[in-house]
Amino acid sequence: xxxxxxxxxxxxxxxxxxxxxxxxxxxxxxxxxxxxxxxxxxxxxxxxxxxxxxxxxxxxxxxxxxxxxxxxxxxxxxxxxxxxxxxxxxxxxxxxxxxxxxxxxxxxxxxxxxxxxxxxxxxxxxxxxxxxxxxxxxxxxxxxxxxxxxxxxxxxxxxxxxxxxxxxxxxxxxxxxxxxxxxxxxxxxxxxxxxxxxxxxxxxxxxxxxxxxxxxxxxxxxxxxxxxxxxxxxxxxxxxxxxxxxxxxxxxxxxxxxxxxxxxxxxxxxxxxxxxxxxxxxxxxxxxxxxxxxxxxxxxxxxxxxxxxxxxxxxxxxxxxxxxxxxxxxxxxxxxxxxxxxxxxxxxxxxxxxxxxxxxxxxxxxxxxxxxxxxxxxxxxxxxxxxxxxxxxxxxxxxxxxxxxxxxxxxxxxxxxxxxxxxxxxxxxxxxxxxxxxxxxxxxxxxxxxxxxxxxxxxxxxxxxxxxxxxxxxxxxxxxxxxxxxxx
Length: 488
Description:
Elements: H1 5-17, E1 20-25, H2 30-41, E2 50-54, E3 66-71, E4 83-84, H3 90-102, E5 107-113, H4 120-130, E6 134-139, E7 144-145, H5 159-175, H6 181-190, H7 198-211, E8 214-222, E9 243-252, H8 261-280, E10 301-307, E11 310-317, H9 328-346, E12 359-366, E13 372-375, H10 379-382, E14 389-394, E15 400-403, H11 405-410, H12 416-427, E16 438-450, E17 455-459, E18 463-467, E19 472-476
Parallel strand pairs: 1-6, 2-5, 2-6, 3-4
Antiparallel strand pairs: 1-9, 3-5, 7-9, 8-9, 10-11, 10-12, 12-16, 13-16, 14-15, 14-16, 16-17, 18-19
Helix pairs in contact: 4-7, 5-6, 6-7, 8-9
């Protein structure tokens, strides 16, 4: 089994689109929450005919009422007890244009559930079951923190770390394949600062449970870091005075465990967060949220950085290399923690406040085991320097070393003999010792954030680009040749 780069992600996303019928999205201003919404809405089918939108009422009263905030002509309700209103609710108004842009032929019904509303979930389930081209979207934001929200002391320093920890259990409950409504309810009850729109969330999860739908996070960040794509997923250990947190989760009939762009962004953001913390002299253990599928994967990884095209960190953990690092998430944490020392001592290009935002950040996923294994002397026959395969060499002494595929892309004219001697030297062996060892061939998928183009490049291609202006992804077929680093 091997990775197929951007094509792998495209296949997974196609699989998602075949089953997704519902989504939980934030409702902040487009500048802040637009990326999160698009990361969920893009998974719905383009032939969507109707949308039920469940807003969060910010001026709800105690009546047992569901308000109709908006209803397109042609949206047939059937039997209902909803009440028309002229209330303008920003949790729908701020999103309406985006829905029309993405689903121009769909009819929209926006509802606002009041406190104490009953049986709304039953009506929505019936409508979804009888209208197969209808989708269901609900909107809530997570933690609001700061003087503006009258809870300046709610988050402890470092605030972004505390925020992730406080929200972690709730998000885990929302994506648990077996939805436990009592558990979700208890979490919301115990911390009333967690959710802006608890009633909306309760109704949405009741519908998801009755529909037997399963959730998958497609985006997660807060309003503090918004200067570029990677900064959204970077935790700042400087004091934060104000933030609003956003999560997007899609729901459908199938459970999807394969990696999505959010998982790559979290890994790259984690690496930058570790480096930033070390530069700032901050404290606190940087979290990698436990709801991420990275905790269910076991692939080996390499984390790396480069500055102005020159590598200044390349550190990894192989699958089953150490029982302490069995999951891909634990390997990401371990390798990232070594990068500051690796940059300073091995590559002699240390991190500092001046170059932190000019670095390229990379995470490279290795094929899951087993890898093809051969006697060392067969390397000239079995290994091809095609830039798509890596090689792992183990000498008779037990010492080992590896070259990632990127090394061969940067050195296409290497002979296999020269490459094996170089690799043997890297492992601490003597010339031609590789002939008595064994070697393994593997493939990888690498994701590199380029600070100049503000793009994540994927190898093997195609690569996916995100436009901060249009809030949309696009696909390019060729690998960006300028995105090169020195040999690892």
